[in-house]
Write a structure and sequence with these properties.
Number of strands of chain A: 18
Structural class of chain B: mainly alpha
Number of strands of chain B: 0
Order of helices and strands of chain B: HHHHHHHHHHHH
Distance between the termini of chain A: 27 Å
Number of helices of chain B: 12
Distance between the termini of chain B: 21 Å
Helix content of chain B: over 70%
Strand content of chain B: under 5%
Largest sheet of chain A: 5 strands, antiparallel
Shape of chain A: globular
Radius of gyration of chain A: 23 Å
Oligomer: heterodimer
Number of helices of chain A: 14
Largest interface: A-B, 46 and 53 residues
Strand content of chain A: 15-25%
Radius of gyration of chain B: 24 Å
């Protein structure tokens, strides 16, 4: 998926097009990449270690990493790229707590990153966007990378990439990958069904149902891809009372939401984000619909049920607007009137998301409880969606982030999740699966949620 | 005498062009205003969702959004005068963003229009020559139905029938390294989706314009002289009908390029429609205005041509 006016070729730019991101991920390497457990896997950095206080991280670089033009990669290239990312328009949010001066070479084969506070998650931050280009690059659009594929041509978002036989990580299995940009998931699914392309990623559940039972087409379901939630503003307004939020969480029939909104391509949520994290708290009791308890809580909080409340939504991701409609219907069973207000995507983003008292939301990186907490729920998060400020949560977060011992950290992460489960502004009703369609000859496709889907170096075609 | 006539004709054409160009400038100003009125701005729409207030503020200044809309419009118009379309909200030269898509849309629209004119003339001509016969009745009733169908309905129906059921034609367009569709077969369904409705509309116009000419005395005498029907059509009916037909086609130009947005998106055709939709989403006023300017310029050219054809046809009318 990609949009014509939003094409970005700068590896350190704002990538909204999945097609652009895919191309960048095949051409350029990052220090680390997503994994399943642990959630960080080595790439350009083969190993890393931190100082005891978790403020100084040292990444050792892979031997034999060469740019596509044959130049060997050095720590200067990595430092220069990380600094460039840090100085980019979105640098502060991409590399939080890291200053430009804190990124330094340590000999030719290692890089040191210093954090302003103890941070056990630095290797996680290095996963997604730390694309390495050559020191001093002036035109980031056509600069060689070190990745598993080389660029043959790029035109208006479409591209052809050929295998880099000198990739330090081994040889990718495919000779070439052609990336085609599609404006809409429906056109993309049609392209696969009519045989024009071999693989389409993130087509959504509607396309998946169309493809069910089709010969020669396989459906790849990546669990925990997209968190689908309803956000209740905590700071002020009708949902500031925790009893109201609890009542809403108990009034929703999550199974029905997953079945009807996601067409079964998903699983129920338990109001804690980061569901694919190995440290996810599975022992917290699964919230289920409990209308009696929900009603009682609303009474207790003297929630005014004579007026109606808007829930804002948009059609950014498949099922989002439908989730608002079904939610409104379900809330009638506890006598709460909800009006669904659908907005155009940018209006929603600018006016409602993070601001409105009640709205539908979605979030794409779900393999780290800590990562979600830092981005979305801390008192000082720039994108604190529910305007939730909880000192106990903040200190649990800082504590977990500053704890080197893995067992102790996972205990602290558990405490954090318990607070989130009890008091946050999230009603996380479900996790949508990422649905990719492929011809049945395509093998070795990525199974990871989120951006893990772009790792195609192990993919191959059978006869 | 001849000199004066020539002068007045030049003045007429110049006046026509001037009026059309003034209209285009007004249209561009309105475009800037409309994007301005939309909620949120280009900085918010093109940065990461978790961008901090400081990052947003810095980006606003970078994009010049701290300037009044009138200033931004005048700056952009100044650039336009020198052929510079400016830079998009995602830092690309606008000409790089719209160049190839504009050509692609032009190809799509032009073929759809030519097809429309040819088929409308043929169908309208046949049905006026054989009034009340099967073809006339089919054309009469089906053109009304087709007129009421929006492009996206026609497009979806075409995809279902020709691409998914019969598997005769590709349902989506895929671009090659040249930026153009890989095969010309990919053009067929988008062209049909655009043209079908216009064919319906123009066939009706052609038919009634020709029918109006039927009762005129010189046509009567030609029929009495026993001239063959196709000669009557081409030499006696058509010349008088041309002004009306030209006006009808001119209307279709705007409608075709309006329909392009929906059709391009359904068929994933790499044209201006997709660029426009996304530019509006990005609140990218210069890019939206560039699309409007190019499309407007093209429509202006066709409208002026149509005005000239009408003026010429009226001038030589017997």
């Amino acid at each position: 998926m990609g949009r014509a006016s939003s094409i970005t070729r700068d590896p350190h730019g704002v990538q909204v097009n999945e097609s652009d991101y895919l191309i960048l991920s095949l051409l350029y390497d990052t220090l680390t990449v997503p994994g399943s457990s642990p959630i960080v896997a080595p790439r350009l950095a083969t190993r890393w270690e931190s100082s005891p206080d978790l403020r100084r991280w040292r990444f050792e670089l892979a031997e034999g990493a060469l740019f596509h033009d044959g130049t060997p990669l050095t720590s200067d290239d990595v430092v220069w790229s990380l600094r460039r990312l840090r100085e980019s328009r979105i640098g502060v949010s991409r590399l939080p707590g890291i200053d430009v001066q804190g990124i330094t070479p340590d000999g030719p084969r290692a890089v040191v990153v210093e954090s302003n506070y103890p941070n056990s998650d630095i290797p996680v931050l290095m996963r997604l966007t730390t694309f390495v280009i050559k020191n001093g690059t002036t035109d980031p659009a056509d600069t060689p990378g070190t990745g598993p594929f080389k660029l043959e041509w790029f035109r208006d978002g479409n591209a052809r990439l050929v295998r880099n036989d000198n990739w330090f990580g081994g040889r990718a299995l495919l000779d070439a990958i052609e990336v085609r940009v599609f404006e809409r998931p429906q056109a993309m699914a049609n392209a696969l069904l009519s045989g024009a392309v071999d693989l389409v990623s993130n087509v959504g559940t509607v396309a998946a149902r169309v493809a069910e039972g089709r010969d020669g087409v396989k459906i790849i379901r990546r669990q925990n891809d997209l968190a689908m939630s309803i956000v209740m503003r905590v700071a002020d307004g009708p949902y500031a009372d925790p009893r109201v939020r609890e009542a809403f969480r108990l009034a929703v029939d999550r199974e029905a939401m997953v079945k009807q909104v996601l067409g079964g391509y998903g699983s129920v949520g338990n109001d804690v984000l980061g569901t694919a994290d190995p440290a996810f708290a599975r022992d917290l009791p699964q919230r289920k619909q409990d209308l009696a308890r929900a009603g009682a809580l609303l009474d207790e909080a003297s929630f005014d049920r004579s007026i109606s409340y808007p829930v804002l939504t948009t059609e950014d991701v498949p099922g989002l607007a439908e989730s608002a409609t079904l939610f409104a219907q379900q809330m009638q069973s506890v006598g709460v009137k909800i009006d669904v207000v659908k907005q155009e995507s940018s209006t929603f983003l600018g006016q409602s998301r993070g601001k409105a008292p009640l709205y539908t939301s979605y979030w794409g990186t779900n393999d780290s409880v800590i990562f979600c907490a830092g981005k979305l729920m801390l008192s000082d998060s720039t994108f604190n969606e529910a305007a939730w400020r909880d000192p106990a949560f903040d200190s649990a977060y800082r504590l977990a982030l500053g704890t080197p011992d893995p067992d102790r950290r996972s205990q602290l992460t558990h405490d954090l999740q318990k607070i989130e489960y009890e008091r946050s502004g999230y009603l996380l009703w479900g996790m949508a699966e990422g649905v990719d369609l492929a011809k049945s000859t395509v093998q070795g496709l990525p199974q990871l949620p989120g951006y893990g889907r772009v790792q195609l170096e192990q993919t191959w075609l059978s006869a | 005498m001849a000199e004066r006539l020539k002068n007045s004709r030049t003045a007429f054409v110049a006046g026509l062009l001037l009026r059309r160009m003034a209209l285009l400038v007004v249209l561009l100003a309105v475009t800037f205003l409309l994007v301005e009125i939309l909620p949120t701005d280009a900085a918010r729409a093109t940065l990461d969702i978790e961008a901090s207030p400081a990052e947003l503020a810095a980006r606003r200044i970078e994009l010049g959004l701290d300037q009044p809309v009138a200033v931004r419009f005048l700056q952009w118009m100044g650039g336009l005068a020198t052929g510079d379309l400016g830079v998009s909200a995602r830092d690309r030269q606008i000409w790089d963003v719209v160049g190839q898509p504009f050509q692609n849309t032009l190809v799509l629209g032009a073929i759809a229009l030519v097809l429309t004119v040819l088929l409308a003339l043929v169908l309208g001509g046949i049905s006026v020559l054989r009034p009340g016969k099967l073809l006339d009745r089919v054309v009469g009733s089906s053109s009304t139905v087709i007129l009421a169908l929006p492009e996206f309905v026609v497009a979806t129906a075409l995809v279902v029938v020709f691409a998914l059921w019969l598997q005769l034609l590709p349902s989506v367009t895929v671009a090659s390294s040249s930026g153009r569709p890989i095969s010309s077969a990919m053009l067929v369904l988008p062209i049909l989706a655009l043209a079908v409705r216009q064919i319906g509309w123009n066939t009706r116009i052609v038919r009634s314009a020709l029918a109006e000419q039927l009762p005129t005395p010189h046509v009567d005498s030609a029929i009495m002289d026993g001239l063959p029907r196709h000669r009557i059509l081409v030499h006696y009916l058509l010349p008088g009908a041309i002004p009306t037909i030209a006006a009808g086609v001119a209307t279709s130009v705007g409608l075709v390029f309006g329909g392009v947005v929906a059709v391009e998106i359904i068929f994933n055709y790499p044209g201006m429609g997709a660029v426009l939709v996304d530019a509006i989403r990005n609140r990218d006023a210069p890019l939206v205005a560039a699309v409007v300017a190019l499309t407007g310029l093209m429509i202006t050219v066709v409208l002026v041509a149509s005005d000239l054809v009408r003026a010429w046809a009226v001038g030589r009318k017997p």
